[in-house]
């Protein structure tokens, strides 16, 4: 069997794997990106597109810092990709809001936001709880059902598909090799010596990154790692293009550059079922119409579901193998939000050969399980 050698192998061609591969290639490492193809569950194609901070990291300040850092890295990443590829990612970071449809929701949200501010400590966490006329000036067309909103200046949104295209184009433009329809079959692992058989060829490298989403659960043990990820189904509705515009994204809805609205944020434990439930769709549409009554006049033109990659506690898992140094894993459900840190901060750590101490809280060791890493 033919053998090819690289400086790094990345298994998984979605948003997480593509961002890491782009960062590695930009570091000067000859990188191969192995992509299973359309038979994969592909969380990237169902991503809602938020670059979101304000709901991330409650009770986990290390995750809040990581997410904030990624939002701060996003403008540089978008500019770099545009300069190299000519592809815009649709980044718009005017801040964002979470809508509260009752006084109870408003008070609960206020308590959560204040807890995040306290947990941030010296790192800081800016937010405002906004009611009444000020909220309606900020968001024209806001419905009377809305008791108020939480706002942070860090939030924004982008086009997931444009981002994925730009990352792939940037990666190959720098000399990286992208191999589609290449499921990782047999493999072997030794310290700084990894081999993966895919598409009839054996690929070797001293570094390997597992970024295969839900597939990491089975792949990780081959390399002395542990990735206890599970699927969480989310559904999204898309409206026709609207003349009225939303000046900033919300947790459960955003307006694309083309004018259509994306409505979503459902969470279902449905295993690997990619079906859709009308009662979930109805609840998503109802909440959107209560928030902005004018949305009820729009036609729905598309709907889909996708599977998020979730750890038991909902936080990302980043790890390196003790048994096989040079093997890493990256698992998260926020491929758009975290693209900035994956390309600009995580990839340089992997290129250097070790995760920095700040990454220790993200290790799968936090689940107190016996594994080989």
What's this entry about, in short?
With 373 residues, this protein is an alpha/beta fold.
In terms of topology, how is this protein built?
Layout: E1 3-5, E2 8-11, H1 15-26, E3 31-34, E4 50-51, H2 61-85, E5 96-100, H3 103-120, E6 128-131, H4 132-138, E7 148-152, E8 156-157, H5 160-173, E9 177-179, E10 187-190, E11 193-198, E12 201-205, E13 208-210, H6 216-219, E14 230-239, E15 253-255, E16 261-263, H7 278-291, E17 300-310, E18 317-320, E19 327-331, H8 339-352
Parallel strand pairs: 1-12, 2-3, 2-13, 3-9, 13-19
Antiparallel strand pairs: 4-8, 5-7, 6-7, 10-11, 11-12, 14-16, 14-17, 15-16, 18-19
Helix pairs in contact: 1-5, 1-8, 2-5, 2-8
GO molecular function: oxidoreductase activity
Domain FAD dependent oxidoreductase: 7-347
InterPro entries: FAD-dep_OxRdtase, FAD/NAD-bd_sf
CATH superfamily of the largest domain: FAD/NAD(P)-binding domain
What general outline do the C-alpha atoms trace?
Answer: globular
Mean pLDDT: 94
Radius of gyration: 21 Å
How many strands in all?
A: 19
User: Helical proportion?
Assistant: 25-40%
User: How is the biggest beta sheet arranged?
Assistant: 6 strands, mixed
CATH level-3 fold name of the largest domain: FAD/NAD(P)-binding domain
- Spans of at least 5 consecutive residues with low confidence: none
Strand content: 15-25%
Class inferred from helices and paired strands = alpha/beta
Give the topology string: H per helix, E per strand: EEHEEHEHEHEEHEEEEEHEEEHEEEH
CATH architecture descriptor text of the largest domain: 3-Layer(bba) Sandwich
Cross-sheet strand order for the largest sheet: 9-3-2-13-19-18
Distance between the termini: 30 Å
């Amino acid at each position: 069997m033919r053998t090819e050698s690289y400086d790094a192998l990345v298994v998984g061609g979605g948003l997480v794997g593509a961002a890491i591969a782009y960062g590695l290639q930009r570091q000067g490492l000859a990188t191969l990106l192995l992509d299973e193809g359309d038979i994969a569950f592909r969380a990237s194609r169902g991503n809602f597109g938020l670059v979101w901070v304000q709901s991330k990291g409650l009770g986990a300040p290390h995750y809040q810092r990581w997410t904030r850092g990624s939002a701060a890295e996003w403008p540089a990443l978008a500019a770099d990709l545009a300069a190299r590829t000519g592809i815009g990612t649709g980044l718009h970071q005017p801040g964002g809001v979470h809508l509260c449809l009752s006084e109870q929701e408003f008070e609960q949200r206020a308590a959560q936001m204040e807890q995040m501010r306290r947990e941030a400590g010296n790192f800081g966490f800016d937010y405002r709880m906004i009611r009444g006329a000020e909220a309606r000036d900020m968001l024209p067309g806001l419905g009377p059902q809305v008791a108020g909103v939480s706002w942070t200046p860090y939030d924004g949104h982008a086009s997931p598909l444009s981002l994925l295209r730009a990352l792939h184009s940037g990666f190959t433009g720098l000399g990286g090799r992208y191999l589609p329809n290449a499921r990782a079959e047999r493999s072997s692992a030794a310290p700084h010596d990894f081999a993966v058989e895919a598409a009839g060829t054996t690929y070797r490298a001293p570094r390997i990154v597992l970024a295969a989403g839900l597939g990491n659960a089975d792949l990780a043990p081959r390399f002395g790692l542990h990735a206890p990820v599970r699927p969480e189904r989310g559904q999204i509705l898309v409206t026709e293009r609207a003349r009225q515009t939303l000046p900033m994204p919300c947790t459960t809805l955003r307006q694309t550059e083309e004018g259509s609205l994306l409505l979503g944020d459902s969470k279902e434990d449905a295993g690997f079922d990619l079906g859709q439930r009308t009662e979930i769709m109805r609840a998503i549409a109802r909440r959107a119409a209560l928030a902005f009554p004018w949305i009820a006049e729009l036609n729905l033109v598309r709907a889909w579901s996708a599977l998020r990659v979730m750890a038991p506690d909902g936080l990302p898992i980043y790890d390196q193998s003790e048994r096989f140094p040079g093997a890493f894993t990256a698992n998260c459900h926020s491929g758009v939000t975290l693209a900035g840190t994956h390309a600009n901060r995580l990839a340089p750590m992997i290129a250097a050969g070790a995760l920095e101490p700040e990454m220790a809280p993200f290790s799968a060791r936090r689940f107190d399980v016996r594994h080989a890493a």
